[in-house]
Design brief:
Strand order of the largest sheet: 5-6-2-3-4-1-7
Number of strands: 7
Shape: elongated
Number of helices: 6
Radius of gyration: 64 Å
Order of helices and strands: HEEEEEEEHHHHH
Helix content: 55-70%
Distance between the termini: 182 Å
Length: 320
């Protein structure tokens, strides 16, 4: 009886072992079949991957396309986390695709999202000796952290500047400035009547100045015309006067020549003429005429306007 029980137990064990072996072989074959449908990629992330665990989902535009196979520190760079992704071969991973860390709502569980990948970009191919690497982008949490850090830094600087700006001394200075401004405003209010009067006077003065300028312009035109007429008249009078003087000088010269000729011919007796005083009178008149002519010419050269106006009297020089 005891032998039969032992044989039965052994038989049951052998049967169960064979079933498990077949199941394992079947699972192993299916596993290898699954591996043939996937491709592995590397992703290097510099931020914390807290909440991300192996077997976490990998999504492409929100669609499950694989899972995270392994997570470890990059042996070549301790500042990076090396992720190995197992993604379906049918997934179009492009050269401009980016991998970033995302989280499921408020649960804290993380997954990898493949974003980007334009239609015209080529597919990311594997090297013969190495797994293809998908570039990473900072997650929303990291971007917010960096932005908040920058905002906090700028806010701290702003508060420091505000503290210096609103110091007690500056507040006192502003108060004094406002007090001075109030006093100045009160003074301006007191001078409003005078300011209005000054404005009215300035308007009247401007009108008077405009009229004066117009009158000066007319007077300048009249002076210009008068000057032109005066120059014409001076030139005419001088020309006629000089011509008269020239004629008189020629007649006097001819008379003297005629007297010299008559005297040389003996037409006159010098002794008789001298006795009667006629020749002396003639010479005196000639001399006076010559002197007057010289004086007149000199006066015209010095002051041509004496032809129309009263003769100017030259000022005596020093010592005269």
């Amino acid at each position: 009886m005891e032998s039969r029980v032992n044989y039965t137990a052994v038989g049951v064990f052998v049967i169960l072992f064979g079933v498990c072996l077949v199941a394992f072989a079947f699972w192993l074959g299916k596993h290898n079949q699954d591996d043939a449908q996937y491709r592995r990629y590397k992703v290097f992330i510099t931020e914390s991957v807290s909440g991300l665990a192996p077997e976490a989902a990998v999504k492409f535009h929100g669609v499950d396309v694989g899972k995270v196979e392994s997570i470890q520190i990059n042996p070549k760079n301790s500042e990076e986390v090396e992720l190995t992704l197992k993604i379906k071969k049918s997934t179009p991973i492009k050269t401009d695709s980016r991998a970033l860390l995302k989280f499921y709502g408020i649960t804290g569980l993380a997954f990898i999202e493949i974003a980007g990948g334009s239609k015209s970009a080529p597919l990311l191919s594997e090297d013969d000796d190495a797994i293809a690497i998908i570039p990473s982008s900072p997650s929303l949490i990291q971007r917010l952290d960096e932005s908040l850090s920058n905002v906090a830094s700028k806010l701290s600087k702003t508060l420091d500047h505000a503290d210096r700006l609103f110091s007690d001394q500056n507040v006192e200075n502003v108060s004094q400035s406002l007090e001075h401004l109030r006093s100045l405003t009160a003074q301006i209010d007191d001078y409003q009547v005078q300011i209005k009067q000054l404005l009215a006077q300035s308007i009247v003065l401007e009108n008077n100045a405009s009229r004066s300028l117009s009158m000066m312009k007319d007077a300048a035109g009249n002076v210009k015309n008068t000057s032109a007429n005066f120059n014409t008249l001076i030139q005419t009078k001088m020309t006629s006067t000089l011509q008269s003087l020239e004629t008189t000088s020629k007649e006097s010269h001819a008379l003297i020549k005629k007297l010299e000729t008559n005297l040389e011919r003996g037409d006159y007796d010098l002794r008789t003429l001298s006795a009667t005083g006629e020749i002396n009178t003639l010479l005196e008149q000639t001399r006076s005429l010559t002197t007057e002519m010289e004086t007149t010419l000199r006066s015209l050269r010095e002051s041509p306007s004496d032809l129309l106006f009263k003769k100017s009297t030259p000022k005596p020089g020093p010592g005269e």
